[in-house]
């Protein structure tokens, strides 16, 4: 009875070997800080302790502050403080390092911006598509100091004052006095109605006029609301902005930003025409080619299926013991990421649901997988919409769905099969957006191919606390790149049953004001991009971490019962994967390591085809059933 088990006391658990070098000591401290743990050993894996790729960027920025230059990729590949310390660069952590980065000036629209405008309509960019946070205010909050803090935030992250030039296909980041003054973006409001204050602040956003940000001091409730247009923020950006706002209010000088959003966007535009990305075109073409079965009651219709027309939604939460196992051992045992396991469970759930209706999906379903888009480069302190999205073709393979639910060896077969499909994605996945939206020669070819009907986004983890005293170590962006809301918002952006009020405010300044304090609101005129959007995020509650799974879709495509049914199937499949991964010897058979980098001398999972991986999974099933 897993639900009856107490959650492990991860915060107080003793760790392994003590750090032996200054670099190891720094990294052990940074790991503990980011993960909310008391201590971390030099040989402890960041991911086995519950970290993910999004949180690894916090490790990068805080290590840099302490004098160590590392990358998110090094955290992913090396995993432990000891291994990362061996490849860390102690030179230039605080030095000039290369050509100066100019954050102001024209900024080309990125693939995610162009893609959303194409599918959801121009209101996705010119309207009020936004994200917001609700923070506890310090007891001594003063409107003048808040305005000064916001001015410091705008100065350090000038993209927050960008102007949209839709006809020119770009943003322009103004410098100095050309930006909208911070005093025009801050207001004090009475009462305790958070929903109303958020709605009013959102309605005042005007991308064409450079009003991308609004802050409201809700004095009677002791809250500060910050709303930003999605063009200038994503979920990762808030992990930078909230601690920076708190630091600026205390009068501290904000840390520099190694890579501006403008520089990053310009690099994407240049990369889109490079030969390395052009070489990926046949692979993307082959992946997208093939039939796509209708997923909902009818094909998606952008003229009818808008945000204003309404959405249906289903949420389910995994209990603390299951979530803890998933974060701290199961994913590692399968040699996969949490997002890989969520995708595997989703693929099985959708296929099982279709089979109960006598439907088949030959060739699988196309799924748009959203990521933070910051795997390469020093983007840990970059504010802006860096999100990336690429399609994968997913199916569950010839697995026994009941066996997966039961936590049997079929779980290994499912993960192996889906891992093989994920390896079909060319390179890092970023090339699709570059070729589809930034390269005029390749864009028409990819535009003519089928589009995914399902969107997927693993939003990451709300860690318990950051060094600044805020709860923003993890992320949970309030909207996906397609405009679907996540975590406590309705399709119109108003709060659902978990409305934040003065009663949910926790002690301490600049903390997220309870669960659901990060949210998003698509513009009502936006069209739905997918027939079904699936997302997951982890929230650290008082008793431990909980994973919430969400399914949303246009109301015209789904009846009231279907999405709850699908969500229940997804949860059941995932709990089966957790049971299998937690019940083995620490190595889930057949899973492999999707992102592994095997040596040249030894064959590894990247050297095997999907069919070969399935064959190995069959062998593993035989072992599990006593066949050998």
UniProtKB/TrEMBL annotation:
PROSITE patterns: CARRIER (PS50075), PHOSPHOPANTETHEINE (PS00012)
Cofactor (UniProt): pantetheine 4'-phosphate
Keyword Ligase included in the entry's annotation: no
Compositionally skewed regions (Acidic residues) per UniProt: 598-610
GO biological process, one term: lipid biosynthetic process
Domain Carrier, first and last residues per copy: 18-92
Alphabetized UniProt keyword annotations: Phosphopantetheine, Phosphoprotein
Signal peptide feature range: none
Top-rank lineage group of the source organism: Bacteria
Chain spans, region Disordered: 467-505, 585-610
UniProt KW Phosphoprotein keyword: yes
Molecular functions (GO terms): catalytic activity; phosphopantetheine binding
Annotated protein name in UniProt: Non-ribosomal peptide synthetase
Organism of provenance: Actinomadura harenae
